[in-house]
Fold:
Amino acid sequence: MTALPERIRKDLIQAMKAKETLRVGTLRMMTAALKNKEIEKRAPLSDEEAVQVLKTQLKQRAESIEQFERGGRSDLVEKERQEKIWIESYLPEPLSAEDMEKVVADVIREVGAVGAKDMGVVMRESMRRLQATGKMVDGKAVNSLVRRKLQSLPENASKEPE
Structure:
């Protein structure tokens, strides 16, 4: 078993001993999601895959919070927020906006991107480099940043077709 699922399992045991019912429920849900992914994959999960499962759980909590706020269910909003905090505690720290911007700018320069048509190449390389940092990377934020940077580039009409 990799380090992250093992840590969650140990924390579940501690929470059960401390009779923290909401935390126990959250940790059980996380454990079940990890186990389901492991069964689907038919192999143990790497820490990166486990983090991806938890990111999905985090996204589900954010969507639930939004739905419950619209429905006026403040009691459920608070429960989901607390679950979200616990899930986040198992994820790597997020990458700073400055670091993300620097990597994207470097990739744009290195691949010679000239406009929106280079979006795929820049996104692929940017995500590869950003994920290699070991920090949590928000793909939507990267996509938005890449799109903004590419749109701000002056189209290089003199570039020869290859």
